[in-house]
Amino acid sequence: DIVMLNETWLKKSISDREIIKDPGYDVFRNDRSQVTHPADPSNPNKFRKFGGGVLIAIKSNIDAKVKRVSVRKGCEMVAIEVTVGENKYVFCTVYRVGTLGEANHSSIMNSIKSFYSGR
What we know:
Structural class: alpha+beta
Largest sheet: 3 strands, antiparallel
Helix content: 10-25%
Radius of gyration: 15 Å
Order of helices and strands: EHEEEEEH
């Protein structure tokens, strides 16, 4: 009922229905861009236009809302909150490029921790 994908390699010109053909699914995605995947600081001319990207697809009959996790740049991330009865569950998928270094990784982890600490 829930599909989570990393390294989707999608771009804006590809519609959600080209990936998940079943209209009974809601699709949430974050495709690679220069904001989510900036140039490698050790080699500013290096930028991979294609690759990365994340997607969550969930059956439309499941109560789900997209949640914003505040991350400045350096990763693709999608999070949804699913309500089942009185319970709420968060599903999150993240893709980051390792060449962006430890500072980028720490920034992303701090953003995720901050998001969950408010729950």
